[in-house]
């Protein structure tokens, strides 16, 4: 056959494999990674996950806020939404462990690898090491994603690195990474993908709240569990009928709640109109405990949420206040967050709430002894919500905890000035860290004879559907590994 006969009408050589086969020679076998077989487009679920990781890395965004909007933007069905959620949260959650593995598979410092490439590698590593995705699919889909959104050159690099990662399973990688390491904190950091300082803080927190340090592995594992969507129907306003029809299940710990491990709750009509809200059961419990706590003699008309943004607890408190003819003042010092509070409260009749924009540290001096019930949901490290905010574990620092604990003291002291005699205050953090919980309460209450601690554990049990056994020395601490809630801390304080 002439050279011209071996070329097609575009001047390209014809497939010589077939000719060899006809001539008795073995035809060439093309691998799955050959150019003809490579994907050049992004699977929608993986594209959503990648964009979530990029928003977190590039813009310091929060995954739990970005992911729902991306799911709706790309119109993912329930199956793909579940895949995107697992990919996003899983890659963010285990970032520390995956980065250590990636570092063993590249020929440079990972700090020199472009962040977009790192995000793609983390997605691929999660599929290879922690999901039931076939290895060839994990590699090919991730490389196809990279080829579509990053470029052909980076895609080839990602392909090579992922094939090295896939040469061992997660257990084998952990054995290799932990060789020669005897420090239990360092070993736990590798196995459970938590920064070492957080592991130390959580060990201290377990002991401080009446648990044992032996529970640390269970707690860290619970932080890594797939998030469960919690709903609350605002009392007197919302219904969970539509949620139950959408395969949500009744919440076992608190009335008017529901749980789901998949799907987009934003598709529910009640969620869209605000009468049903996405809210962790722990947050529901502490709000209901404040609303049910016994007051001293006097009225029960004026309620305050001192740190209301973004408005979840404020909405539940306002609905409970409305049932009693009371009014909630929701205070938030930042205007853009105050707007979120107004939106959260929009389902509650307007005569039962108002939004103020003030520095909470000045509130007590401006309105002394005015309020019957006060919620101080203080800004905190968020170490109790790491399963819902997987990126937070890699952002927080010990120095931030120290700064926040000082702010927490100032807010609590201000709120106590605003509390009337006989009134009840709930000091709440979504963190079990001793520096943000017991230490704050002890410091602010030390030497005061006009203040008494109510039994927060009993208060939680009074509003829960089953005993929680969360109390310790009159304060209460919820735990992900025990109660399947965020690690909410509660102290109930009554002014004599």
Question: What does this molecule look like?
Answer:
The chain is an alpha/beta fold and 496 residues long. Helices cover 49% and strands 12% of the residues. The protein has helices at residues 16-22, 44-59, 63-73, 78-93, 95-105, 115-130, 135-149, 152-165, 170-178, 184-192, 196-208, 216-223, 241-245, 269-273, 281-292, 312-323, 335-345, 360-366, 392-395, 398-418, 438-445, 456-463, 480-483, and strands at residues 229-233, 249-250, 257-260, 276-278, 302-305, 327-331, 353-356, 371-377, 419-429, 451-454, 471-472, 475-477, 489-495. Helix 5 (95-105) packs across helix 6 (115-130), helix 15 packs parallel to helix 16 (312-323) and helix 18 (360-366) packs parallel to helix 20. The longest helix has 21 residues, at 398-418. Residues 202-496 form the SAM-dependent MTase RsmB/NOP-type domain. S-adenosyl-L-methionine binds at residues 307-313, 332, 359, 377. Keywords: Methyltransferase, RNA-binding, S-adenosyl-L-methionine, Transferase.
């Amino acid at each position: 056959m002439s050279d011209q006969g071996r070329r097609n009408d575009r001047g390209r050589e014809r497939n010589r494999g077939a000719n060899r086969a006809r001539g008795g020679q073995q035809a060439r076998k093309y691998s799955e990674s050959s150019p003809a077989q490579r994907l050049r487009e992004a699977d929608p679920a993986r594209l959503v996950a990648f964009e979530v990781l990029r928003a977190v890395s590039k813009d310091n965004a929060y995954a739990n806020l970005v992911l729902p909007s991306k799911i709706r933007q790309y119109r993912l069905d329930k199956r793909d939404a579940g895949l995107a959620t697992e990919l996003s949260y899983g890659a963010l959650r285990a970032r520390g462990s995956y980065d250590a593995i990636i570092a063993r598979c590249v020929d440079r410092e990972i700090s020199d690898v472009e962040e977009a490439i790192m995000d793609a590698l983390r997605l691929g590593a999660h599929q290879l090491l922690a999901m039931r995705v076939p290895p060839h699919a994990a590699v090919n889909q991730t490389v196809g994603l990279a080829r579509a959104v990053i470029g052909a050159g980076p895609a080839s690099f990602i392909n090579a690195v992922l094939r090295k990662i896939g040469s061992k399973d997660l257990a084998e990688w952990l054995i290799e990474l932990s060789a020669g390491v005897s420090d239990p904190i360092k070993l736990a950091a590798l196995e459970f993908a938590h920064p070492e300082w957080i592991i130390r803080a959580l060990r201290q927190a377990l002991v401080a709240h009446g648990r044992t340090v032996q529970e640390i592995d269970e707690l860290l594992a619970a932080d890594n569990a797939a998030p469960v969507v919690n709903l609350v129907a605002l009392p007197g306003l919302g219904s969970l009928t539509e949620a139950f029809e959408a395969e949500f299940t009744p919440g076992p710990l608190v009335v008017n709640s529901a749980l789901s491990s998949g799907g987009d709750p934003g598709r529910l009509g009640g969620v869209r109109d605000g009468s049903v809200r996405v809210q962790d059961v722990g947050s529901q419990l502490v709000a209901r405990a404040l609303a049910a706590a016994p007051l001293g003699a006097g009225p029960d008309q004026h309620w305050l949420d001192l740190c209301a943004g973004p408005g979840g607890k404020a909405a539940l408190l306002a609905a409970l206040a409305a049932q009693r003819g009371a009014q909630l003042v929701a205070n938030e010092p930042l205007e853009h967050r105050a707007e979120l509070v107004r939106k959260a409260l929009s389902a509650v009749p307007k005569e039962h709430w108002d939004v103020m924009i003030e520095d909470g540290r000045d509130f007590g001096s401006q309105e002394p002894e005015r309020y019957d019930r006060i919620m101080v949901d203080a800004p905190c490290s968020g170490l109790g919500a790491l399963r819902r905010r997987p990126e937070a574990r890699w952002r927080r620092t010990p120095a931030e905890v120290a700064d926040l604990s000082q702010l927490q003291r100032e807010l609590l002291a201000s709120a106590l000035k605003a509390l009337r005699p006989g009134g009840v205050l709930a000091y709440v953090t979504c963190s079990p860290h001793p520096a943000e919980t017991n230490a704050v309460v002890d410091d602010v209450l030390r030497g005061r004879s006009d203040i008494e601690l109510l039994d927060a554990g009993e208060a939680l049990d009074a509003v829960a559907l089953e005993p929680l056994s969360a109390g310790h020395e009159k304060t209460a601490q919820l735990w992900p590994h025990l109660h399947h809630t965020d690690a909410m801390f509660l102290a109930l304080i009554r002014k004599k």
